[in-house]
Description:
The chain is α/β, with parallel strands linked by helices. It has helices spanning 5-13, 85-93, 129-135, 196-202, and strands spanning 21-24, 43-46, 50-53, 76-82, 99-103, 106-108, 113-114, 139-142, 154-155, 170-172, 176-181, 184-190, 207-208. 15% of the residues lie in helices and 24% in strands. The radius of gyration is 17 Å and the shape is globular.
Amino acid sequence: MALSKEQIAQRIAREVRDGYYVNLGIGIPTLVANFVRDDIEVEFQSENGVLGMGPFPFEGEEDPDLINAGKQTITALKGASFFDSAMSFSMIRGQHVDLTILGAMEVAQNGDIANWKIPGKMVKGMGGAMDLVASADNIIVAMMHTNKAGQSKLLKECSLPLTGVNCVKKIVTNLAVLAIENNSFRLLERAPGVSVEDIKTATEGDLIVEGDIPEMTF
C-alpha cells in the first residue's frame, strides 16, 4: 500500500541524527519535525529566519506571527532564535546545515532536481531551494513517485527547469526509498505491500534492484 504524506515524513525522520541542523522545505518535509525521536536533539532551520522550530501547533494554539518559509504556523522550541534572511542564508551558504529535506516535482537519475517552476504557471520565485541544493552535501527528497496522471516523476532527465544538478543523495516516495548511485536509482526499501514490479513500472529512470528488497519499517 502506498504511503501517506505523513508516513513519508515519518520514514525520513529516521535519517535525522542527534545534533543535526536540518532545513525543512515546503510541503511534506515540514511534517518531519513531528516524527523525530524524543531522545535526540535536533535544530530545525527555516530560511525565513528561524532556528529551533518545533512541531506544528495544535488547533487553537497557533501564533500567526510565528511561521515557516511556507507561511505555515509553527511552534518554537525553548532556546529558539529569530533573525533576518541574510543571516539565514549565510548559515545555508556557509554549509552549517547538516541535512536538507526538500520536495520535488521531478528528480533525474543523475541527482538533478526540479522543484520550483512549471512553465506557464505563475510562481512567486524559486525561494531558497537553489541556495540549499548548491550548498548542501546531504539532500533527501520527499515526493510522490508519480504525478496525478500516473506518470513517473523519477526520470532519466528532468523536463522542468532545474533547481540543482547532481545534488540529490536519497529519495523517499510513497512507494520506495531510493539512492542515487552510478547515474541510476538504487532501490533500497519498498513501502509495505508494494512489490518491486510496482516500483519498476512507476520509475522511468534506470533502476538498480539487487537481492531481496526489504519493506520499510517505522
